[in-house]
């Protein structure tokens, strides 16, 4: 019974992620890339340019997606990235580029500008270059990303700075927001460290306490209000640990698995996963129809997964137990309690 | 997806069954509640469709609630509304009670939400809250009706179960305020021209960060250039006239305040570029304990190396400091606090100091079999410069320059450049010729690197 004929209407899935390469010139401590998990991930060779564009064309035709986020690895390490961007722009698809900024020079920005990229997402991990470089495990990363941000803004591009909140950089959060604002960023994503991949090896070192994160949210609310500056927490902040209703100026995200805004992710070989954090492979979009894959038992199982801990919580269905992909990556099952929630379960207050 | 397909088939078959029963003159409402489970499901499904089309069993009385029930179905239920119980003799009819009226209205709305017919974001937060509150009231109403014997036990049980399903369905849908709530969904940003209004606020922060040398001066200059463009835009009268007349004074105020702040940051930036190389305090190495270990070695060994005079004990101590400094440099490099080039250059210089210290025998020893300075000073300088050159290049490539490091490594390099003349005349001509050729090449490269380094340091 599972066929493309049985898919819901309207048949459009707006947004997808394409991991253009697994290669990266940074080795971030908090990196969640699925291929860095302890559990093996299939070897992935990048497709040729022609095959990549054919694969993207097929999935765009099938899904009707209007927005593709190019991620990695570091997307700009791929020599045909400009051809990929040109192809997507020619199809009228919005493109977000998630990059560490190290390879964004004036020349590369000039090639990407002109409306081809809707939004650049760059990490700004600390106002202190030593902390930023340490988290990125790349000397000079801070100076490169701040220069890239300034250059992007001088080219009138839209840029969001991403702050991954860890124990190491939370003390500098407010000043880092100031830096992002001063450099002209259009907003900040305040994302708590969400373990997976390499990050799973650094949980103790990086995972901040709910109290420290709550203080940072207070500072974020104040900053957003003072400067009329958009700040969004796209990694779910568990409502059983944070009273998100207190923050009028911040926006909060929940896991989108199974919804029409799910962040289906395609790896360089065309394998589809439920999101960029999850290691679950639903199948290959080169061989199978997109709708068949997202309607597959594996996809449904992922969407339906909830930790038993959440039973009885009023918003269980909307929250989905926070980040099940982190649970899957670090604890082996999307039904397990994700690491942040597991570490703080004793403090959690179910929403009744 | 299979459930949808199954439901479709069930509804179609149910419709046929209901029509057949109608032709036979059977009571459809009764048929939906009695008999085997498969029959109840089938008829209920058909009646559901008929009800959706506006037809209800027992006539076309629109005020009466539709009859189909879930009929005890399992997961593939097709529930449209609750079952009314029979009216008790002589009493108010169930369908006339305010509880029932509220119950059916709420039920219908919740059913539409839960089934997805109202779309993925069927209400705002207030609407969701109200619907959930209404469903809670419905729960109480069911119990009240059951207590008053208006609903029998089976009907009450069915309604309770279906109510749970509706509540879960309503809770699973997100309100319109959460349309953009999704992991890693990129932020929807305000247009960039909004940043114009933020100029006044941004500049003091930029000024503060630039003063604290938090950002590379080149990045600050780039930001300033962008802001200057925004200000210049506002200085064109035609552009200013694009604002509404009442907004114009505010725009002019922002422009003037931004111009003043911009000039302050530029003055500060230009001033810092003209100042001579700073002491080791301005960058984050000043408070770094690993860098302190390196400095300790430097301070201990430099006088011994320069004087050529050291005791056995001083050498032993210096050796310990050297080992500690080497490890500290590795840590600085691993942590990214020094670039590979910087760390390598400092290490090379540390080795040079050590060699200089060891060049002469200890002053408190009569042993004379130490390696003596058999190479002429020119050769020593050439060796040292050759060893430093790759590090200098790496350091420049990395583009990260700590004033404290530059301060340490430039003077000895310049001293070696000064010392790098031709070999003494008593050396064989071919050796001198080869040396001169090599020295000229190394000198040219080192001088170029040093000039670039100074230029970069001045820019900082």
Question: What is the oligomeric state here?
Answer: heterodimer
Cα-atom radius of gyration of chain B: 44 Å
| Shape summary of chain B | elongated
What's the main sheet of chain A like?
11 strands, mixed
Strand content of chain A: 5-15%
DSSP strand tally of chain A: 11
What's the SSE pattern of chain A? EHEHEHEHHEHEHHEEEEEHHHHH
- Return the structural class of chain A: alpha/beta
Low-pLDDT regions of chain B: 57-80, 83-91, 184-195, 273-282, 368-373
N→C terminal distance of chain A = 37 Å
What is the succession of H and E elements of chain B? HHHHHHHHHHHHHHHH
Number of helices of chain B: 16
* Distance from first to last alpha carbon of chain B: 62 Å
Q: Which whole number gives the mean pLDDT of chain A?
A: 90
Q: What's the arrangement of strands in the largest beta sheet of chain A?
A: 8-7-6-5-4-3-2-1-9-10-11
Proportion in helices of chain B: 55-70%
Can you put this structure into words, describing what you see?
The complex is a heterodimer of chains A (352) and B (460). Chain A is α/β, with parallel strands linked by helices. In chain A, 33% of the residues lie in helices and 13% in strands. In chain A, helix 2 links the parallel strand 2 and strand 3. The N terminus of chain A is likely disordered. With 460 residues, chain B is an all-alpha fold. In chain B, helix 7 packs antiparallel against helix 8, helix 8 runs antiparallel to helix 10 and helix 11 runs parallel beside helix 13. The two termini of chain B are 62 Å apart.
